Amino acid sequence: MNRKRVLALLFAASLLVTMAVVFLLQSDDPRMDVTAGGVAELAEGDQPQVAGSRERRGASPRRAEEDDELEQKLVMMLLHLYGDRISSTSVQILMAQIRTQVMTLFPGDWSSRFRRILEAAFPGYSAQILATLANVDSFDRWLAANDEELAVLTPEEREEAVLAKKEELFGEQAVEELEAEARASQQREQAMGETIRSLEESDDTTLDEKLDVFKDALHENLGDGPAALALENGSVLAQAFFGLDSVSRQLAALDPAARQERINDIRREFGYDEEQIAELEKDDREREADWQNGFKYMDERRSLESSYSGAQLEQQLASLRQRYFGDEARTIELEERDGFFRFERPRLYGRN
Question: Residue 243: which residues within 8 A CB-CB, separation 6 or more?
Fold first, then answer.
């Protein structure tokens, strides 16, 4: 995995649009899958069925109770993150992203729930927040309506026009605060990028040393504000660490037993408990068996390619795929037709 993909994985975990998912790590709601895949799927617009739509179809009251519990957890999160700063317009603007999250979690009755969440988390400020969000919507409409006019301006002119509209809607102080936060966020990302680049290039440091540097950089760059919630998602952080090429190379150099022990130790560092580690180790062993099977398949495949061609080769390959992959042979065939050979991709121990 290259440096940009590692950074994307890390900072996706700290986006405000996924904060609710990251925060609800202990939720029993099946919608709250906070594995790396689960975060990505929900962030990309997965819209689970919730109270409003369920009740119209006569679903059980217990599900409505779970939605109410989820709503209360969102209230607690917002109060924790913004309770002492919600009077600031720049902070109120951030509620637009929370609103998007509420739309995703509660598509059937998101509007009424969002109002209740605001009133419960920020007593006395809900009307002001909604007014600020109305201005956010006005700004979005202005951008869409003036897209062609803005496109013909120079970058400097376009920036000046957009800035003027922001100040008109939100006030100069709020815009300055938002710009300052954007600059700080960019600096944090650059600093994290420098750390990841150094780790990628350092084959002369131990895995323990890499892990220490990685965790220190995370806490330094994600340790304040909403982004700190990403630190609670050990799954995302472990995925990012195992995605470093230098980490994969060093794990590959170990014998299988020692490698598994190191992978388990790394997972402990990211907060996995022993039961989770045991389950993941089982997955690792299954993946290892799949890879070894795949390597043998590829060796035989290359041998066939040197001996056959045309229809004869296709017949031999079909038989080979069936022998190695059984019911999955058709999937392997389709992948290969698209030029994708799964057992030639990089091996990332602890991930694939």
Answer: 1, 5, 6, 9, 348, 351
